[in-house]
Amino acid sequence: MEWSGFLFFSIATVAYVWNGNNTFRKKEWWLLLAKFIAVFFVTFLLTFSLKGLLSVWQFSSVATVKIGVLNFFTSCLFVLGGKLGVVGLCTIFSSISDFHKKYNPRYYPTLLSLSKETSSLFIVLIKCLVSFGSILAVYGIWLG
Q1: How far apart are alpha carbons 13 and 138 in whole angstroms?
Q2: Per the count of CB atoms within 10 A, which of 34, 98, 130, 143 is most buried?
Q3: CB burial class (10 A; 0-12, 13-18, 19+) of residue 109?
Q4: Coil, strand or helix: which one is 45?
Q5: How many CA atoms lie within 13 Å of 34's alpha carbon, on the beta-carbon side?
Q6: Three-point CA angle 49, 52, 54, nearest 5°
C-alpha cells in the first residue's frame, strides 16, 4: 500500500504542477482555496466513515487506519501546495515586473528583454525544484 500511495501521489503532484497556468486570476485563486477546503472536508468525512466502519467490521487496526488517513491528507496537501508554490513564485515575479513597468519606465525595456530571455528557463527551474521537493515530501510521507 505504501508504494502504491507513493507512486500515485508522486505522479499526481508532477502532473498537477506541470499542467495548467502558471499565474492565477482571482477566480482561480478562490478555486484553489476551495480545493484546500475540500481536502479538509473529504478527510473529515473519510475519518468518520472509517471510524463507523471499524466499529461494525474490524478490517484493520485503528492505528493503521489513522496512519492511512493522515498519509492521504498530507499527500493531498502537498499536491495542492506544489501548485501553490509554482503559481505563487510566478505571481511574485509578475508583480515585480509590473512594479518596474509602472515605477521604473526608464529601465523597464532592458528588464523586459532580460526577462523574455530567462523567463521560460526560470519557470522550468521552478517546476523542477517544486516537483523534486514534493516527490521528496511524498516519499517521506509514504515510505519514511
Answers
A1: 9
A2: 130
A3: exposed
A4: helix
A5: 6
A6: 105
Q: How many angstroms separate the CA atoms of 81 and 74, rounded? A: 10
Q: What is the CA radius of gyration of the chain?
A: 20
**What is the distance between the alpha carbons of residues 81 and 102, in angstroms, rounded to a whole number?**
31
pLDDT (tens digit per residue) in 79-134: 999 999 999 998 998 888 889 889 988 888 888 888 888 888 989 999 999 999 99
Please give the C-alpha separations between residue 69 and each of 87, 113, 141, in angstroms, as whole numbers: 27, 49, 11
Cell of 98: 509590473
Cell 477566480 belongs to residue: 27
pTM for the full predicted model: 0.84
Q: Domain total for the chain?
A: 1
Amino acid at 78: F
What is the rounded CA–CA span in Å between residue 100 and residue 85? 23
**Distance of alpha carbon 69 from alpha carbon 50, whole angstroms:** 9
Reference 139, options 10, 4, 11; nearest CA is 10
Structural domain that includes position 57:
2-143
